Design the sequence.
């Protein structure tokens, strides 16, 4: 029954334009949708079963085990990570993850949405540099 539910969720997630990931409770990738394949630069088949922290590096937020524990204990997590693409380049992404529970409250899996924040970070850096140059001008 659970596998049928997960299959239905995977099909629904595949229709969403937002990059999405489904993880098991140990942080292993169960499924990623096509927009996330594009963002991560890897196929769903290539990633299935791999630990999420093989490709998402915490950005000064703690160790992977602590982050996974935090998601499971709090029921959610939002943070900025570095996505490691196959060519080694890093792409900053914001991840919002939530534990999906059964009708009895048992944790079943984790679902996460991913947003590329690289352009936003570059824009903020440019604005900061512009502001600094205005302050330092006589």
Sequence:
């Amino acid at each position: 029954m659970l596998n049928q539910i997960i299959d239905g969720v995977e099909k629904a997630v595949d229709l969403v334009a937002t990059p999405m990931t489904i993880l098991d409770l140990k942080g292993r990738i169960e499924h990623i949708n096509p927009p996330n394949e594009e963002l991560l630069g890897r196929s769903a088949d290539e990633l299935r079963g791999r630990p999420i922290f093989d490709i998402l590096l915490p950005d000064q937020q703690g160790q992977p085990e602590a982050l996974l524990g935090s998601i499971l204990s709090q029921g959610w997590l939002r943070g900025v990570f570095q996505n490691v693409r196959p060519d080694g380049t890093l792409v900053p992404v914001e991840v919002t993850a939530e534990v999906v529970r059964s009708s009895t409250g048992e944790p079943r899996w984790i679902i996460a949405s991913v947003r590329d924040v690289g352009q936003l970070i570059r824009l903020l850096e440019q604005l900061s540099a512009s502001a600094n140059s205005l302050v330092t001008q006589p």
